[in-house]
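Input record (Table S2, row 412):
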Amino acid sequence: MNSEELFAAAKTLLPGGVSSPVRAIQPYPFYVQSAKSAVLETIDGRSLVDCCLGYGPLILGHAHPAITAAIAAQMENGWLYGVPTELEIDLARRITGDHPSVDMLRFVSTGTEATMAAIRLARGFSGKTDIVKVDGGFHGAHDAMLIAAGSGATTYGIPDSAGVLPDFAAHTRRVSYNDPEDLEALLSKNDNIAAFIIEPVMGNIGPVLPDDGYLAAVREITTAHDVLLIFDEVITGYRIGIGGAQVKFGIKPDLTTLGKIVGGGLPIGVFGGKREIMEMVSPQGPVYNAGTFNANPATMAAGIAVSKYLHLHEDMYADLEEKTRVVAESLPSSAPGTFVRLGSMFKYFFRSAAPRNYTEAKECDTAAFCMFWEKAISEGVFLPPSQFETNFLSTAHGEAEMAKLVQVYSQC
Ligand SMILES: *Cc1c(COP(=O)(O)O)cnc(C)c1O
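Output record (pyridoxal-5'-phosphate complex):
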């Protein structure tokens, strides 16, 4: 069967024909046969340069030999024990060593679980009820975080999804990114706010970058109001460098969530932070968290392998940055939009200036983006199929792949 036929079959079994909404590319998505380095091979016999990379995790590209070997070796020994392993101590030591703000952590299976657990922990630790998030910030698909719709006004949350109870959504407040006054105003009016959760670099509408001093202001304001600061580094962790945004920008959040890269491409989530807060997590403390697949050996082995690789080859971050510079410079001077990049994260926004927040991001010409996306895929480049998803590069993007990218972006 070809991709079109497979999608028709899938639609009878899976809602919308997919297992996660962004995959429902119209009129039908391509189905992948295999993937190696920076290239996806489709079931229809096409080769596509992959700038989606599983939405971020695959910083070394597909089927990297170091990760493949680590997973294969673990498979020989079994992949689920239901008791602790030395692997989780090894990976925890690596992650805490890379993040000065993280003294202790808990492994879960997805980024969604990580932010859900971090929010419960912030509430359990502080005894306060409300959470503040950034408009357009994405923290996974659980009830407290599926709130961002509507205007940028700082107001009670309105659910983005049917089935999220308005009573529950009312405990999620919103502020605009890059607007410290908005946060200050909200926190000074409310004394029942447990935490402010933020993607330090907004990865799910962009990237949208922090203004100079914004993250430092966020740290100052949250400290002054005794509100915990949660950095959701599920995308930025190990993506913009070892230690993520918190090391790059020199900020110490109270809690951090990780996922994506940290599991080497297998399912993972991590929440961690200050010892006195993490000691509240069960069984040490009263805030419950548990999971059959938490710290599963296959993911731990893949995570250790990627960590080893990144530490041994830390100069790859500069190489990746150079690659996105090459793409940026391929744009013609007549290009109507704006190219934004940070390390190996990049996006071409169909807007005359780089968006600074959700409201501005939504002003992009999404019809123009769709035409550009179609053109890119027809020339053999797979970009995430949305104006609001970050593009990624990997160490596996070589000369041939870069030449294709340059060709596509030179036609902007
Ligand atoms: C992807 C993502 C999540 C959710 O992670 P899953 O593993 O998909 O559940 C949470 N936060 C951010 C910033 C993400 O990009």
